[in-house]
Amino acid sequence: MSIRMCLRRGSAADLIGLGAGVVLAAPVLVGIGYAAAASLGVVGPGATAAGVERIARVLAERTTWRGLGLTLWVAVLATALAMAGAVLVAVLFRGAGWFDRVARGLAVLPLPVPHLVAGALGVWILGQSGEIARVLAAVGAVRMPAEVPALVYDRWGIGLALTMAWKESAFLAVVATALLATRSVDVEDAARTLGAGPLQTFVRITWPILWRGLLPAVIAVFVFVAGSYEAAALLAPSDPLVLPLLVADRASDPDLGRRGDAYVATLLLLGIAVLAVVAHEWTRARWEPLDP
Amino acid sequence: MTGSHLAAAVPRPGPGRIVRGVLLLALVASSLAPLVLLAIWSMSGRWLYPALLPTEYSAASWRALGAESLGPALVTSGALAAAAGLVGCVLALPLGRALARLRGWRRHVGAAAAFLPVAAPPLALGTGLQVVLLSVGLGGTVAGVLLAHLVPAVGYLSLFFLGTFTLFDERVEAEARTLGATPWQVWRHVLLPMLRGPIVEAVALGFLISWGQFALTLVVGGGAVRALPLEVFALVRAGQDRAAAVGALLLVVPPAIGLAALRWAAQRTAVAPA
Question: Is A233 on the interface with B (CB under 8 A)?
Answer without folding.
Answer: yes
